[in-house]
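Internal tracking record. Fields below are filled automatically when a chain is submitted to the structure queue. Please do not edit lines marked as system-generated. If the sequence contains nonstandard residues, flag them in the REMARKS field before resubmitting.
Queue: standard
Priority: normal
Entity type: single polypeptide chain
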Amino acid sequence: MKVPWHLVTVSVTAYVVETYTKLFSSIVHSSVWREPHHVRLVWVTMLALANRYGYVGASVPGLADASRVTLEECEDALRRFQEPDRHSRSQEHEGRRIRAVDRGWQLLNHEKFREARNSDERREQNRLAQIRHRQKLADSKQSKPESAPVSRSKPIRSDQIRSEDPPTGDPPIAPKGGKRAWRRIPEAWAPNEGHRKLAAELDVSLELELAKIRDFEFAKPRLDPDATFRTWLRTAAERQQRSRPYQGGNSAAENTKRAVERARRRTAEFEARQAASGEA
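SYSTEM-GENERATED OUTPUT FOLLOWS
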């Protein structure tokens, strides 16, 4: 028996991902707190909407509705956030707070404040872990009977004595070939001009992928951060191409393969020019 299509009911479940943002108390001493009421409202709303990478995805009317301000007030606030602020305590971007990106905005200092927050959380977690570990050792010593026999058949070596403090962090990885291996990309490392050109060729966001790789921990030790980030950008381009519909009659796999081949060719040309200029 065929049922008319207009009588069929389809149940759809929507999943909304909520984000949580810590608000530093020092915001009340910042220059943004001297701005008009609507500017402060839009700024706090953007902090609440930002994901873990500092990206705020919204339209101007949507952001205005979320901030409970008028469209003109929201546009004025966004203009102020993108202008230099000589009174800002952070002059890394001349005091600018946001940058317009595709489908939203990027909070410029989000990564710095996230790292400060995460380091505080790690220190507190390590402190609580040490307290629990010492308490566990104390409880085990109290529960052990005093008349328990002690074996003296073999002497105890100094390397068999365990410290009461639990180990924190990953064990250091031995250097290989004069370079120190790592699982998380070094904090002091930064992308070069070749990475920026490769990201532009692949049509991926350099800032977004940089924030992702800094939060990622590789299963195997790595040595070359430049090569690792180039591979990361190509993988991001492949994922991005697979998520898009067919283009120009070609499948997503074909488009991805062509984009990767173009990127590799451009990268090889760039490295050849760099080598030639170095020899000259």
